[in-house]
Amino acid sequence: MFDSIVDEPEAPSDAGQAGGDGRNRLKDRAPAVRESLAVLAERARPTSSSESQLLPVIPPLLGLFPGGGLRRGTSIVVADDGRASATTSGLTLCLSLLGAASSAGSWCAAVGICGLGAVAADDLGIDLTRLVLLPSPGPKWAESTAVLLEGVDVVVLCPPFPVRPAMARRLLARTRDRGAILIVVPGQAGWPECPDMRLSVGNTRWDGIGKGDGHLRRRRVTVTATGRRSAARPRQQDLWLPSTAGSVEIAGPDEIAGPIDVTGGADVTIDVMGVPT
Predict the structure, then answer these.
(1) CA distance 239 to 63
(2) DSSP E strands: which ranges in the chain?
């Protein structure tokens, strides 16, 4: 059932008979592995009613989404303004989309995000007991993502390799068919298909640094939402991402960030693991 997602040929092996024996053993185990995946998908089956087409988001993000939530069967690409890919501010925004949904009982998964800190995820409101992590999916990342789309409400995907258009289309089709939500944080190669919604992060500035003193305390960004159909009208929201508490808050017009401007993409940031980069 899941083989149709990946049509890449297996990489040739020079391991000889030993390598062949290893592949045969893996082939023999395939039915048991698929059975285990099916059990996992069933146990993590979405708890929300199939009739409920929207999953909740945290209050600071409500204004970005038509209807005020994540719509089932749709895809979202999160990237930095003017870039095909996302830096840590985009990744933080991406993870913040899981907070309200997981707290409401939905299962979520993150594929290809290495080093995600539990404390940072908890600060963003994510229920860690309903979060499945697959940090290093390897060459079969698309197949792994397809399996997760079978059984969880929201999947965050950071593709570890460039994505072919046919592969992206198959994942989007699986997302629609299963009524899941696919959130993509693309790499440098970008995402080849047009998503239902795109969130762009720009005007990034850090607050807390004075003239030679102080500490980085919070990051101000402007998030712009565009998309298709009901999301065609652009929406914008200024946010503290993260705030001094490590969460997401609306940034008021009278709250001015400090002088550190990283709009051009400099990595003067605190990443999702809570470590300066």
Answers:
(1) 11
(2) 54-56, 69-71, 74-80, 108-111, 131-134, 154-157, 181-184, 197-209, 214-227, 235-240, 249-250, 260-261
SS3 state at 126 = coil
**What's this model's pTM, rounded to 2 decimal places?**
0.75
Range of the domain at 244: 200-261
Considering the domain architecture, whether residues 181 and 205 belong to the same structural domain is answered as no
Distance, CA of 37 to CA of 151 (rounded, Å): 9
CB under 8 A, 24+ apart: contacts of 71-74: 71/181, 71/196, 72/153, 72/179, 72/180, 72/181, 73/175, 73/176, 73/177, 73/178, 73/179, 73/180, 73/181, 74/175, 74/176, 74/181, 74/182, 74/195, 74/196, 74/197
pLDDT tens sequence across 80-105: 876 655 567 888 999 999 999 999 99
d(CA 88, CA 146): 25
Residue closest to 241 by CA, chosen among 210, 208, 206, 214: 206
Report the alpha-carbon distance of residue 164 to residue 192 in Å, rounded.
7
**Ranges 85-89, 156-160, 187-191, 196-200: which has the least confidence:** 85-89
Q: Within this chain, do residues 154 and 220 fall inside the same structural domain, yes or no?
A: no
Is residue 218 in a domain? yes
Number of domains composing the chain = 2
Angle at 67 between CA 219 and CA 182, to 5 degrees: 65
Are residues 131 and 156 in contact, defined by beta-carbon separation less than 8 angstroms?
no
